[in-house]
Amino acid sequence: MADQDSMPDAGAPPQDFASTLERLEALVTRLESGELSLEASLTAFEQGVGLTREAQRRLDAAELKVRSLVEGGDGELEEAPFPGGAEDVR
């Protein structure tokens, strides 16, 4: 199918968060264009769901890393809540 050929490495996971976000934005643009067939739209949507999950996984991992590397006033590293983290969401 020609629509999938225009998406580089559509099946390969992106190497970093920025790449994940770029690919997700490209999929959204393609979907919003209205030029995809129904089948291609469904495939793009499925890829978008996967990319969204990958982006969330990367954000969660980054939050955990920040939590574990906060430096206290005495120079010691200590865990501190991440502002805007899950505990702030109600």
Structure overview:
The protein has helices at 2-5, 17-33, 38-68. It has one domain: Helix Hairpins. It is rod-shaped, with a radius of gyration of 18 Å. The protein is an all-alpha fold. Helix 2 runs antiparallel to helix 3.
Secondary structure category? mainly alpha
The tally of beta strands, per DSSP, is 0
Radius of gyration: 18 Å
Largest sheet, described in full?
A: none
Average of the residue pLDDT scores = 78
What is the CATH domain class?
Answer: Mainly Alpha
Low-pLDDT ranges = 1-8
Helix content: 55-70%
Indicate the overall shape: rod-shaped
Q: Write the H/E string, N to C.
A: HHH
Catalytic activity: Exonucleolytic cleavage in either 5'- to 3'- or 3'- to 5'-direction to yield nucleoside 5'-phosphates
EC number: 3.1.11.6
Function: Bidirectionally degrades single-stranded DNA into large acid-insoluble oligonucleotides, which are then degraded further into small acid-soluble oligonucleotides.
InterPro entries: Exonuc_VII_S (IPR003761), Exonuc_VII_ssu_sf (IPR037004)
Based on the model shown, name its key terms:
single chain, Helix Hairpins, 3 helices, mainly alpha, rod-shaped, disordered N terminus, 90 residues
Brief overview:
This protein is mainly alpha-helical. 58% of the residues lie in helices and 0% in strands. The chain has helices at residues 2-5, 17-33, 38-68.
Give the secondary structure arrangement, pairings included.
Blueprint: H1 2-5, H2 17-33, H3 38-68
